[in-house]
Write a structure and sequence with these properties.
Blueprint: H1 4-18, E1 23-28, E2 48-55, E3 58-64, E4 75-81, E5 86-91, E6 111-118, E7 123-128, E8 136-140, H2 147-150, H3 163-172, H4 177-182, H5 192-201, H6 215-236, H7 244-251, E9 269-273, E10 278-282, H8 283-286
Antiparallel strand pairs: 1-6, 2-3, 3-4, 4-8, 5-7, 6-7, 9-10
Helix pairs in contact: 1-6, 5-6
Keywords: DNA damage, DNA repair, DNA-binding, Glycosidase, Hydrolase, Lyase, Metal-binding, Multifunctional enzyme, Zinc, Zinc-finger
Protein name: Formamidopyrimidine-DNA glycosylase
Cofactor: Zn(2+)
Length: about 300
């Protein structure tokens, strides 16, 4: 799943290439991916891309003008969340062949969900791989109309994210720290992969309870969040969309590296598996050498 650094890079990539161009086609291929009906997708036609930004892990294509349909709203937003299997595929010369809508499908390969073509012939596809289709596309007048956007927590790269604000979040509910980092209503943009990386940098167990952190540990965690994400954004920035996935994998220290060597201490990277995901960590760096039991309600083995 793309997280804050990759979504930021995709926003910059699309902003550079699409801003100032007019939408001449917007064709839905996967009906289930479209979560809104008013305004319709056709309201995007004729509008100019005013910019592309992100909200947490959501991409926001802002469009200005009244468009071909005469929609009175000055701005519309094409909002989409790529979820686990979604991606953006840019074409300097977008296909002009008709797109056939489909209601569903169980294809494991990448399937087209939405195609947007611009007036210079370029455009982008939203695709989704796998059988579990979770890509979400919204056409709205205001991003706050989408509940998942309206309820996002603090952006970890904003000035509002301070050691004090993090401490308040950690005291609000006593929970495992990895769960807090992944909670989009608390901190927007961090998922399974970067929470593993952050906790490795902070030398903290993923199961440490938030109310057990000292002030110094909170400060160290805050620094790990900011530095890890900023470094990842810097690595991703400027890369073509097609290279971002490989760049993300290559930059991981522990996530997705079960059985490999920890780059800090040389110990083996270990894994805890759950029903639909897993986490990776280094016992030497993060748990004082103790191995976490591989079950959902894991505790440190004694």
């Amino acid at each position: 799943m793309p997280e804050l650094p990759e979504v930021q890079a995709l926003a910059e990539f699309l902003d550079e290439r699409a801003t100032g161009r007019r939408v001449v086609a917007a064709d839905v291929a996967a009906i289930a991916a479209l979560k809104t009906f008013d305004p319709p997708v056709s309201a995007l036609l004729g509008r100019e891309v005013a910019g592309v930004s992100r909200h947490g892990k959501w991409l926001d294509v802002r469009l200005s003008g009244t468009g071909d349909a005469g929609e009175e709203t000055a701005h519309l937003h094409l909002l989409f969340h790529l979820s686990r299997g979604g991606w953006v595929r840019w074409s300097d010369q977008a296909p002009t062949t008709p797109v056939r809508p489909r209601m569903g499908g169980s294809s494991r390969g990448s399937a087209l969900a939405l195609r947007v073509r611009l007036d210079d012939g370029a455009g982008f596809d939203l695709t989704e791989a796998g059988t579990r289709k979770r890509l979400a596309v919204h056409v709205v007048r205001d991003p706050q109309e989408v509940e998942q956007v309206a309820t996002l927590g603090v952006d970890p790269l904003s000035d509002d994210f301070t050691p004090q604000s993090l401490a308040a979040l950690m005291q609000a509910k006593n929970q495992q720290v990895k769960g807090l980092l992944r909670d989009q209503r608390a901190i927007a943009g961090i998922g399974n992969a970067y929470s593993d990386e952050i906790l490795h940098v902070a030398r903290t167990s993923p199961f440490k309870l938030t109310r057990s952190f000292t002030d110094a540990e909170v400060a160290a965690l805050h620094d790990a969040v900011v530095t890890t994400l900023r470094d990842a954004v810097a690595t991703s920035s400027g890369k073509p969309a097609k290279e971002l996935k490989d760049a993300k994998r290559a930059g991981m220290r522990v996530h997705g590296r079960t059985g490999e060597t920890c780059p800090v201490c040389g110990d083996v990277v270990r894994e805890v598996s759950f029903a639909d995901r897993s986490l990776q960590y280094c016992a030497t760096c993060q748990t004082g050498g103790q191995v976490l039991a591989d079950r959902r309600m894991s505790r440190l083995l004694k």
